[in-house]
């Protein structure tokens, strides 16, 4: 097995740091799935009963997110690598780039006394006399997941949703959810084909609703399979989903991507999916199941 990837675009490096930072707030273990054409980062979802968070980065374009991307999986039939590490360890390895520019970041699978993911970066330091370019290196211990356990980390790519609606700014939602998480354990999102999105929390004494208008809402396309000519839209004019307020708020507390487009997909009374489309063919997907607890 081998894996090597290089990032040398400053914004892409910051985006990558933001992804790892967000994931470390949600769960301690990070799963890294290396495929020939893409890199997938995800949190362990086994204990969360339908909650999924993952980032998919297109690695097929040399002028895309990665300037270099080489991998060789466990064998020709299963040309993938699954590895796990502590998200906090990965975040510490990248922490230098939070406030300092670097020329590149290189990720490489290595084996010393144990399997590790090496993180290397080149910094430029200037003073009155010299310009230095020291290399900063970290080795993150990883566990290579055997083929027999890959099915534990399968991501629900083909989920049927009813309505898809554009979302307001992350800053607006962050402020709103920060207030609502202290009012009630759940928040209900309502989307309508009138291009409206509402977030509602209910307590025994008060109902607080926040409304956003003039957001584009369309019927979501359902994956049909079989021999039907095209995906069929749902026939609902509105959809809602009640989810855990603190889990949703935690996501928006850390999300801070450049040029992102946010979309909410609702499966009526069953699941909420928020997709963050970033630059250079990368996106983050977050699925929260509907909850009924009081």
Automatic annotation (TrEMBL):
PANTHER family assigned: CHECKPOINT PROTEIN, MITOTIC AND DNA DAMAGE CHECKPOINT PROTEIN HUS1
Localisation per UniProt entry: Nucleus
Record InterPro entries: HUS1, HUS1/Mec3
Protein name, as recorded: Checkpoint protein
Record key words, sorted: Nucleus
GO biological process entries: double-strand break repair via homologous recombination; meiotic DNA integrity checkpoint signaling; mitotic DNA replication checkpoint signaling; mitotic intra-S DNA damage checkpoint signaling; nucleotide-excision repair; telomere maintenance
GO cellular component entries: checkpoint clamp complex; nucleolus; site of double-strand break
Source species: Anopheles stephensi (Indo-Pakistan malaria mosquito)
Family of the protein in this entry: Belongs to the HUS1 family.
Name of one Pfam family that matches: Hus1
